[in-house]
Specification:
The chain is mostly beta strands and about 200 residues long. About 0% of the residues lie in helices and about 55% in strands.
């Protein structure tokens, strides 16, 4: 590792300033990323990804699961002069099916990541997803405790057979599952069940 401070991620500061902290499903969340550096810094990639965090009680412990809700925005490479700030405007499209925020249960953040040659610097800003007119995006019900990212389960195939699967994402009573060598598939909870060998 060279002594070049331009590649030290600790020499780089990153913050997120939102145009609005409240959004509707399908809106664009916009704001400014602020890069600051005590010494010259080089950012090889900059991205903003909207992320959902779901918290649930499991065996008396609060368990958090976070997953991206879209691919977000890739903003390119930037350099920051020593002692300077650099502002980069961004806009991220949010999916139209987002459920309403429930503070400390179902939260959404815009996660900004600046990548340098030596590591990553991350900053986040909380956004509040409001209900749409008519309540079309009312908060989704929370499924059983075993319906959580990373858990093994059984999933019903289109032919009606139950096969072992792994949960890779959860959105209300729908889960993203992977079985065999197939691509992950979203299935309703009624087509999933807890592994019988647990």
């Amino acid at each position: 590792m060279s002594g070049d401070p331009s590649s030290d991620p600790k020499a780089l500061g990153l913050s997120v300033k939102l145009a609005s902290r409240t959004v509707l499903p399908g809106d664009r969340a916009a704001g400014v990323l602020i890069l600051s550096a005590a010494s010259a810094a080089r950012v090889t990639a900059l991205r903003v990804v909207p992320t959902m965090t779901r918290r649930e009680l499991e065996a008396g412990e609060v368990r958090s699961t976070s997953l991206p809700v879209s691919s977000g925005s890739q903003l390119g490479a930037y350099s920051v002069a020593a002692g300077a700030n650099r502002e980069i405007h961004f806009s991220v499209q949010l999916p139209p099916e987002l459920a309403t925020s429930v503070p400390n249960q179902l939260d959404y953040d815009l996660v900004a990541t600046a990548v340098t040659d030596e590591g990553e610097v991350e900053a986040r800003a909380r956004v509040l997803v409001l209900p749409t007119e008519g309540g079309a995006n009312m908060t989704l019900p929370i499924g059983p405790m075993w319906l959580a990212v990373g858990n093994e389960c059984e999933a019903e195939t289109d032919e009606g057979h139950w096969v072992d699967a792994r949960i890779e994402g959860v959105h209300g009573l729908t889960a993203l599952v992977r079985w065999r060598d197939a691509e992950p598939t979203w299935l309703p909870a009624r087509r999933l069940r807890e592994r019988s060998d647990r």
